[in-house]
Amino acid sequence: MKILIVDDVSESLELLKEVFETMGYAVLTANNGAEALKILDEERVDVIISDVLMPKMDGFVFCREVKRNEHTRNIPFIFYTANYTDPEDEKFGLGLGADAYLIKPIDIQILINTVEKLLQKGKAEISKVDAVSDDVQYLREYNTVLIRKLEDKMYELERANEMLMKMNRELQVSHEQYKSLFENAGKPIFIVQPETWMVLDANNQAENLLKCTRDEILNLNFAKYKKFFQPLFEGERVVNFETTIIDFEGNEKIVEMTANLIGYADTSTIQIIISDLTEKRKIQDELIQTEKLASLGRLSASIAHEIRNPLSAININLQFLVRKFQEGTQERKYLDLALEGVRRIEKIVEATLNFARPSKPNVKEENINDVINATLPLVEISTLKKKIEIMTKLEPDLPKVKIDFKQIQQVILNILTNAVDAINDVGQICIKSYLAEEGGTNYVVVSISDTGCGIPKDELTKIFEPFYTKKSDGTGLGLAISKQVMNHHDGKIEVESEVNRGTTFYLKFKVK
Length: 512
What we know:
By secondary structure, the chain is an alpha/beta fold. It has helices at about 10-20, 35-40, 60-70, 85-95, 110-120, 125-130, 135-185, 205-210, 215, 225-230, 280-320, 330-355, 370-375, 380-385, 405-420, 480-490, and strands at about 1-5, 25-30, 45-50, 75-80, 100-105, 190, 200, 240-245, 250-265, 265-275, 365, 390-395, 400-405, 425-440, 440-450, 490-500, 500-510. It is built from 16 helices and 17 strands.
């Protein structure tokens, strides 16, 4: 027996073909009514199973053509459809001369039984063909079926469109909520593609962290952190690993990263949340340094007091002995050297005590330019000896700041003295005063720049430590005391330096 199966859905076609071939039938297949008619011109078949909704020629037209042909009209015809399920559709199909009208899904055994029953019955009843032999009636009924199906499809389309619009609105709301949470998060967030490690998205805090625009962030690559994120691909979270990052202004920042694998635009991406620890770590270091300095100060003061009395006795005895020897004698030479050593020890003791027990600043409203102008003559001789040119650029009409005139003068003098010492023979020292805003606070700033030897980067963090000095005759307390004074004035002292290019110190006084 030979069966012709007509269906445009290849999966359905292959399934039926396999079922009936297993049962011993020879099976021919076609994807639409037009192809099936060509097969019928060349092959004799015993039964036809046809879908209804198909391209080029649907099942109804195909059935009508089969039943109008005297060579094929008696072939049993079965409609097997999932789309034309209305009773009127079934009535129309059977009216075309079909022998059975089965609606998917259906138990496959029912289809098999129907085929076998029709084959046993023999030729189909010709009377059904006569029922639709009138072309006008056929077209009227066929159009009615198509219009009803079209109306059903339009209704389904409208419902689908409404559903789609509702889903779009919900998606838009969800997207806006996510975007709001993303942009207004308290920490910088980056979305990174794991295949390329390129940044796909970032929030406003990320821009603030890196001091750049969104477009500049989207060109960033996180490949250098790949090894830190490897546990993500083994199903683990990456929590609070500490590293450093360089912003677009060249500043190194200490950060803590937490990462998760998340879905983003139908792909798996890495969400990285960053905490900026730079300021926190700076404050911690300053607190530790302050405590260390306080401890050192107390120890130094204790030692200085113990030294002072015996040193005074040594000084008096040396002065007494000096009178015993004429100037120019060998003994007098040794005694003068000893006295010079004593004076140096006294200088260190005095500086140590000043550092350990600084006097409370007597603050008044002062013009910082007056302090600068009063200090410059104190280094004039030193600058003339070395042919150092001093340039000033003092901004007039600066707001007055509350300072202890003498203490700030000492700070400026310490820095100017260091600048003179940093220049070998010929050079320049530039002093500026101006108003600047930093973090929402206005400062009167004094900058002192020299063209000296500069300070190596690894020594910049040490120069404010007490007793740290590179000078053979230095006490190592000048900058430590300067920082202490600035702290007591609620101000800042900062430094920038480049070896063989020079150094710039900044003194910053809050405008209150």
